[in-house]
Write a structure and sequence with these properties.
Two copies of one chain form a homodimer. Chain A is of the alpha+beta class. Chain A folds into two domains: 233 residues, Aminopeptidase, CATH 3.40.630; 121 residues, Alpha-Beta Plaits (2-Layer Sandwich), CATH 3.30.70. The first copy, chain A, is built from 13 helices and 18 strands. In chain A, a hairpin with a 3-residue loop joins strand 4 and strand 5. In chain A, helix 1 packs across helix 3. The longest helix of chain A is centred in the N-terminal third of the chain and has 19 residues. Chain A is globular and about 80 Å long.
Chain lengths: 455, 455
């Protein structure tokens, strides 16, 4: 464990718990005030350790959670780090599956902290910042440090993506550090060599002006509960491949080395089934796990709702239905283009008698892959070998941090994504947690990589 | 209007409103107490006008709403009427669409009473009983009258169906009167010459042990939100016909006369669209409206639910999904057999990696059609011509009163279904209502048909 963590444990946990208590659900307008309060709290926390900080707003995004920007000058002629994290969290639903309150953190068995955001990303970025704070308090040699903490990552980083270009001068940096990803199994360190992009939208089908009796109207009224199933099921072929015409055009295939390294850092089918209670049989038939998860795009349904959902039966033909759809994208796919293709596909498949509305469209971000022989990767590899004898693996993650591409472009920095998430953390799910071991490991990583960059 | 209605309006509305205040949602165990209270209230009401009444329970159905049986001796050697109705109501959801409280009846503009059950079936059966009460108070010549009021019609009449045979002696009758159906448009009286049967079930798909991140697991974890759409969309062919093998085998085709009469009592496409805000383009392509609604079976999705349903997005792969499915059946189809076929079809179409559970199976009842030249139909026709110059139409309804077949078999009675529902009543939907005009008309019908049978 980080020695600093041991000596300051009480203070660190107190701050961490305070941070977790903000129900900063960035996607939900009703929680805007909580997001602002959370950003204000972080601003004060950073100011106390010598940062100048400001909340960045944008006229176009009034009503969006603010972006917190902070900076601190380092030693003369030292390089500049840009650190990115997000203080927004996923909605906690389904609430009934939580064993403790999602926004009242609980440390169980002196091992793990349970709360929404305990890992993603409050836990990860805050443990990194605690490592940085330790360095500052030790009076170590430091680079210039810039910090961006946003409140919309879970819903597409719309504002930060839009304003990134205008912040270009402010956020110019040599290295972009992000701590929002996972380590390999058994907490073996991992350097993220690629991320998928993401885009999402909500579709709604409307038919009759109100719910109808399924006997009196069955055979007459079009049924959106059935229609939403029919339109959604046109998105894939029987073999699990994507049926939207043109969706996979132009995808950059991975190199043999990338496939080999990705296979090495992928869990086995058995281990996956043991951890998640299901065989990893999703996606396109005939491809390996890492190919399906890292190098191929997906279209997923994140929610589908229509009609009665209570006990027993209610023989109704609902008047409307909706589905929440998201896509994961890989290099070679333009988010704007694939969203257009999906919209066109849906419009071509509207069930008879129903009206389709496409809403909450977020074109998100493209996927990317990084050159695995770059200097910053070699430095990270060296440090992670110091921290863990096993050394790091390279991982191409199926997940997305939409804004990373935009920040790379605007800051000119080389991205370095190292995080210590584990499957058991259950991010985006009930009973999310983060262990003190992960917390302390992240602090250690922060201390070492920041110092190494300062040299 | 019935003269008795005018003279006793205040008392009738008071009783009617009391009846509507019971939230007797028969399908919901949490409302069992309300159902029992409602049945007790009806028992007392009938006892006050000379009936012997009892609540029928069944060991197999402990915890089900009771069946109320009541009887009253008529004049010597007179025939026996069995009157059937149901005091249970549909759940009131979605609550936010009600303009007034569903269980606090409101009379608007001195014209219509708004409440769940104001029509279906509390309003219809209670106005019939008020007509009968008027006859009793007038000292008119009366037949023997038996009354069955049950509390599970909206969820399949399981208990009454099961005990009907054992009540056979008790409920033996010449005519089975039911007031739970609709009149033709503009309140033109209608005799129901056929009803569809109904059966329903709930299907559930399970995959991972918890909700998963759609980026980290997309391409690996099977997705039940997508799977439920896929399995449900296998139930129909592209032309809207049912794709379940054998489902339509053996269906009795209607005669030319039945088709002609049914077409006469069916609204036009334009009128339908004007009333319900949607073209009547559901069901199988190439068939007329009345064929699709009355003479062909359906499979409908009454509800489909999985994953996130709030604002914005939550990029999750849900761990489970469910759909509520109901079927309307026509003569020639055995409910048990088609339910087996649907179950088999679903089992053959389980999406990869998911576990299917079929639950809340209710085999309901078969559909039936009655001979339109029967003596009781001729009597009804004569009376309805007295009440309304236009005379009655014959209707084959798409809806079901599941228990009617069982009661016909057990009582040996000839069924006569005449009701005065109208589309604007919005049964099963928010803001259900019933007009005082309908109430009074039903009273008049009750007075005349009961008297005619007594002669």
């Amino acid at each position: 464990m980080s020695s600093y963590f041991q000596s300051s444990r009480e203070e660190i946990l107190r701050d961490y718990f305070e941070l977790l208590r903000f129900p900063s659900i960035g996607a939900d307008k009703l929680h805007l005030r909580d997001c602002v309060n959370c950003a204000m709290w972080l601003k004060k926390w950073l100011e106390k350790i010598g940062f100048s900080a400001s909340l960045e707003m944008s006229e176009k995004h009034l009503g969006s959670p603010p972006v917190l920007f902070a900076s601190r000058k380092g030693d003369e002629a030292s390089p500049t780090i840009l650190f990115y994290g997000h203080y927004d969290v996923q909605p906690p639903e389904p609430l009934e599956k939580w064993e403790t309150e999602p926004f009242e953190p609980v440390l169980k068995d002196n091992e793990r902290v349970y709360a929404r955001g305990s890992q993603d990303d409050k836990g990860q970025f805050f443990s990194f910042l605690c490592g940085m704070k330790a360095l500052i308090e030790q009076g170590a040699k430091l680079p210039n440090i810039k910090i961006l903490l946003e409140g919309q990552e879970e819903s597409g980083s719309q504002m930060l993506s839009d304003i990134a270009e205008s912040l270009s001068e402010k956020i110019k940096a040599d290295v972009l550090l992000v701590c929002d990803t996972s380590a390999a199994s058994e907490l073996r360190p991992a350097i993220i060599a690629g991320l998928r992009g993401v885009a999402h939208l909500t579709i709604k089908l409307d038919a009759a002006s109100g719910d109808l009796h399924s006997g009196e109207h069955g055979g007459l009224a079009p049924n959106p509960a059935l229609g939403i199933a029919q339109i959604v099921s046109t998105l894939h072929n029987c073999d699990g491949s994507i049926a939207v015409r043109g969706f996979c055009d132009g995808i950059l295939m991975p190199s043999e080395k990338e496939i080999r390294l990705a296979n090495e850092s992928t869990v086995s089918e058995d281990e996956y089934e043991k951890t998640f209670g299901v065989k990893p049989c999703g996606g396109e038939e005939g491809l390996s796990m890492s190919e399906r998860n890292a190098f191929r795009p997906t279209i997923e349904v994140n929610g589908i709702h229509s009609g009665y959902g209570g006990p027993g039966s209610k023989t109704v033909i609902p008047s409307s239905a909706f589905a929440k759809i998201s896509m994961r994208l890989v290099p070679g796919q333009s988010p704007r283009r694939v969203v257009e293709l999906v919209k066109k596909h849906l419009e071509n498949n509207v069930p008879r008698g129903m009206k389709l509305t496409i809403d909450e469209v977020n074109e998100g971000s493209p996927g990317f892959r990084l050159p695995i022989e770059s200097p910053i990767f070699r430095l990270a590899q060296f440090i992670l070998e110091e921290i863990d004898d096993r050394g790091p693996v390279f991982m191409w993650e199926g997940a997305s941090i939409p804004v990373v591409s935009d920040l790379v472009r605007a800051s000119g920095a080389a991205p370095l994504l190292v995080g210590f998430g584990q499957a058991e953390d259950a991010i985006h799910a009930p009973n999310e947690s983060y262990s003190l071991k992960q917390f302390s490991l992240t602090m250690k990583w922060a201390e070492k990589i920041i110092s190494a960059i300062a040299e």
